[in-house]
Amino acid sequence: MSKLEVFEIPEGNIDVKRMYLPVEMELVCPKCGEKLVDDFDEQYLSYPDINSPETRGVYCDNCESELQYEVKLQVSVEADLSSIRLEGE
Ligand SMILES: [Zn+2]
């Protein structure tokens, strides 16, 4: 039987200078309609705040426009308490 405990972290700062994430956000340029990808594995988050909107910048090569949009980092921890055991067993 699994017993899961989930803790949502409402706020705080993650003390990580470069936080790379396997996220490829697909965007459409509002000016020319070009499909763009914002790769969080290349453009990292720097010292991100939890649940606090952060402005991301993306450049559209097609129409040479600077685009911006908001992202918010959400963090939770899930513990499987049915996995509790003595070390080595
Ligand atoms: Zn464009």
How would you characterize this protein structure?
- Helices cover 0% and strands 45% of the residues.
- The protein has one domain.
- It is elongated, with a radius of gyration of 19 Å.
- The strands form 4 sheets. It has a two-stranded antiparallel ribbon with strand order 1-8. Strands 2-5 form a two-stranded antiparallel ribbon.
- It has strands at 4-9, 12-13, 24-28, 35-39, 49-50, 54-60, 65-71, 75-80.
- A hairpin with a 4-residue loop joins strand 6 (54-60) and strand 7.
- By secondary structure, it is an all-beta fold.
- The protein contains no helices and 8 strands.
- Bound molecules: zinc ion.
- The site of zinc ion has 8 residues, from loops.
SS element count, helices = 0
Structural class: mainly beta
Backbone shape = elongated
Q: For the largest sheet, list the strands in their spatial order.
A: 1-8
Ligands present? zinc ion
Give the strand content.
35-45%
* Helix content range: under 10%
Quaternary structure state of the chains depicted: single chain
Task: Describe the sheet with the most strands.
Answer: 2 strands, antiparallel
State the end-to-end distance.
18 Å
What is the H-and-E element order?
EEEEEEEE
Number of domains: 1
* Alpha-carbon Rg, integer: 19 Å
Q: Which spans have pLDDT < 50 for at least 5 consecutive residues?
A: none
Average of per-residue pLDDT values: 95
Number of strands: 8
